[in-house]
């Protein structure tokens, strides 16, 4: 029987475990061009900007909601097997997850049109995202077995996982409609490098007392594991052409898809601002290098029937092999190469911000600064405080995070944002973002869950972002 290459999937988890795409520090940080990627309707002051290739936007996030490395491997005098039973089998549930994402910008450019109310942006970035939920009943069955759990149904639906790596080509338009309302949209083309997903599994495995043998096992399954691009990467790795294959598949040589981002900023009054964005409303159609594995059916087996003393007449009979052959014959396993559609994990951001203090102005008589106050632009104040909401669509339902934040501007050179976020990974997530403007050079750096850096092995969440841009405000 041929099974999916699980070792490769776990490798992908390891490669991508570098959390769930919530960029609360960057969101609505208007001084940074990359804020346009999270809200295409953000208020902008740039005449043009250009990201330094490969340095303009790097973000890595990883999280585990159930257990940390310290929980399992700390030298605390507790036996490792006891830790596995108490902290994995005893404490985690099928809603706990390991997830990760990274984003790496290749090109990011923006410029204002002859109509100063319109701003265009475009670029390319590479993105990877993966999530795997704790397969609770699988782990229990593998570690402790079912000898003491007759009549218990082990749920096959505990297996839910997905992951992908792709290049994203994007073009956005930002439009100031009036002094209160700014809207934006961004079109995307996805070029998938590889994808795997197994998110709609159903069924169970149960063992009961048998009629013709001691035990009877029932296997009821409706499971599917879909992949694309993985076989091409395996072949390229063996041929020493992995780099060329990744580049080819990332630049329209793999599977393609379409998506759109939408965003809006609305000034309730001069000092109170409401924002919202909806990202990655899209899909990828996988038809190239596709291989799927399907397990569907309802079968019952009582193993190999051994009738004594007749069975002793053939002492060389391999009863174990008979059982394996029997299972392979009756389990309805299939693999095919059918195309499939994978929808992107759609994300929602929203915020409410109140500003106060003196407006930060470079030169009130000149319409040329990064903080100018034109007829269609709101001023930037020294202080800002507010709340943000984040949601992402995941295989076990929407995942939510709430953030409170404070922003502080120090002249036209330095801007700071600090956040406190509550989500399923941490209740003590404090983050800090810094934006430095030295003439046309823009540098930003951000890190989340700062308290976790006291003991990284004991932290269940980590995130950082940084980038380098050249910005011109000019004169509109």
Secondary-structure map:
Layout (H helix, E strand, L loop, with lengths): L5 H11 L31 E4 L6 E7 L4 H5 L6 H10 L7 E16 L5 E16 L2 H9 L9 E2 L5 E16 L4 E18 L3 E8 L5 E14 L1 H10 L2 H12 L1 E13 L4 E15 L3 E12 L17 H12 L2 E4 L3 E4 L3 E13 L21 E12 L6 E12 L3 E9 L6 E10 L2 E8 L12 E12 L4
Antiparallel strand pairs: 1-3, 1-21, 2-3, 2-21, 3-4, 4-6, 5-8, 6-7, 7-9, 7-10, 8-9, 9-12, 10-11, 11-14, 11-15, 12-13, 15-16, 16-17, 17-18, 18-19, 19-20, 20-21
Name the average pLDDT: 82
Give the radius of gyration. 27 Å
Which percent band covers the strand fraction? over 45%
Distance between the termini: 68 Å
How much helicity do the residues have?
Answer: 10-25%
The low-confidence parts are 1-20, 304-312, 362-376
Q: How would a textbook summarize the main sheet?
A: 21 strands, antiparallel
Number of spatially distinct domains: 1
Q: Based on DSSP secondary structure assignment, what is the total number of beta strands?
A: 21
Spell out the helices and strands N to C: HEEHHEEHEEEEEHHEEEHEEEEEEEEE
What is the number of helical segments per DSSP (H or I, 4+ residues)?
A: 7
Shape: globular
* Helix/sheet category: mainly beta
